[in-house]
User: Fold this.
Amino acid sequence: MESPPIVLASRSTARRALMESAGLSARFMAADVDEHAIRAAQRRAGHDASAAALALARAKARAVQVDPGTVVIGADQILSCGEEWFDKPEDCDTARAQLLRLRGRAHVLHTAVCLLRDGHEVWHHVACPVLHMRAFSESFLGWYLAAEGEAILSCVGCYRLEGRGIQLFSCIEGEQSAIMGLPLLPLLAALRTHGIILP
Assistant:
């Protein structure tokens, strides 16, 4: 069986690596959407972080131009801690302040994914892994920021679990691929259900 063409509407290298490691053949296209405006509109409407993450995933999937028959995967992620939502930090000072706000607390990564086929949504899912950040010392934070540098600016939580970021946590609940930005097991199941990959 020949799989229909698949496009991942994301510029995330972590999502791309997850798909490639799972053996999924796809093209990767950055979606041009105003993420800040979508998040703000979702908050004004009283939606929670999971709904906002799904709205972002849908917007990205719809933003890419593809040929008929193409399957488009849209994905996005919002970090919430209490009532606060976090964006990717703009610089290392912002990253430091964000990590201090998360220190010693649990936060949720609302990781949304949707499938579009010929412009119609056929499936969506939101995973909500919970990460418990330990009460790390100021010395550790200084070492961590110096060692990671600007690499953490591409991560909403200022950490990469596949690297030194794992040292920030005391406990993690949820699928690692969802933490990295793409709930891979539910996505693979959906692709099989819809005849896109072999069952």
Q: What stands out?
A: The chain has seven helices and eight strands.
